[in-house]
């Protein structure tokens, strides 16, 4: 099947995956051409405009976490997926993110998680940023979840920092974050939900 064959009929859309985007995704993901086209078909069915909006993104997450409040966590995940910061996720951003979060190495997943935790984008994570994300994870899990830890988000963030902040400067570098997570499997699982 050629890229010309991937034409979507949703709402009269004639959008297709360009050869350039297809080649880019074959080079930068672990997916072959057939799988990329399959993902594209599904993406266009769910997002006929070719744009995944924040509202649609939240709706998708709510299906996986019906008893919790996923909105805050979704805001952070969406911000990380929306690489060009234009307010929506296009197919390329979507597939790159899916590739890392589902098929990536532990290091790739943790680098992605680091970008999510670094809310202000300054290259380090402080306790407030960590607390925000941990609280968002707790909210997403819901109050009745057996998976929800008993400690508060602030207590958990401080405990994480006591393990990872090697130089005690109140900030986690990407190196400290990766090292701390790779040495503690339980911590790694908690800090990369859905990845």
UniProtKB/TrEMBL annotation:
Entry keyword set: Calcium, Metal-binding, Repeat
Superkingdom to which the source organism belongs: Eukaryota
Entry GO MF terms: calcium ion binding
SMART domains attached to this UniProt entry: EFh
InterPro entries: EF-hand-dom_pair, EF_Hand_1_Ca_BS, EF_hand_dom, Recoverin
Pfam (any one): EF-hand_7
Record domain EF-hand: where: 69-104, 105-140, 152-187
Membership in a protein family: Belongs to the recoverin family.
Protein's name in the database: EF-hand domain-containing protein
Species the sequence originates in: Meganyctiphanes norvegica
